[in-house]
Amino acid sequence: MSTARNRWQTYALGAAAVAALLTSTACDSGKDDGKNPTATPSASASAPASPGASAAPGTGPSVSASPSGGKAGPSPSGSAAPTTGGQSAARACSHDDLSITPSLWKSDSGQNLLITAANISGTACTLYHHPYVGFGTVVAGPLPPMGSAPRSAAALQPKERAYAGVYMFRGGERTVAVTALSMGYQDRAPGSNKESAWLEQGLAAWTGDLNVGRDAKVTYWDKDLRAVEDQLFRPGKG
Length: 238
Known about the structure:
alpha+beta; 238 residues
């Protein structure tokens, strides 16, 4: 037992000596000799970010480590806004936002109708999907869509335009005469607002009376007029 006690005392003394030596060394290293100034943490590393600071444009969402030490993930500060062709989706256009102009192509014999929608409001809006089109009380509508939808919805800044074409009839087809155009607009969800009130306007000032066949259809909204013409005149190329 005495041998074991002696060994413990010897070890304890040795540990105390090492500790004293380390303490002495640390005190000596704290002296300012002008060669090794004490390093201080940078303000950007230690100070909290100011409340008004924000990330530079294009840097993406902030990333923080998970509490469990796992992989870092996006900061739950918010969710991404819905997009339209890579941009934030604007509200859906309504009657009050738009000026609608019906017209006919030259040398077309009235077989196709062009609808031009101009954004006359002071803010951006989006024409989703295809317009609801009817012809007063004669053809209640809505006409079914034709062709394929464009890759993105027609987002209109103030004074920008979008187009939709109406296939009216083909030669030799039985038709009925119409004098008024009725229109409605969809929200982001396909088929929405179908039961809402449609705006009706006379055709006489723009086109005169028109004839409509039994298979009339309407294209999707598109900011590219050529794409609408392809749908109507060159099916399969739009």
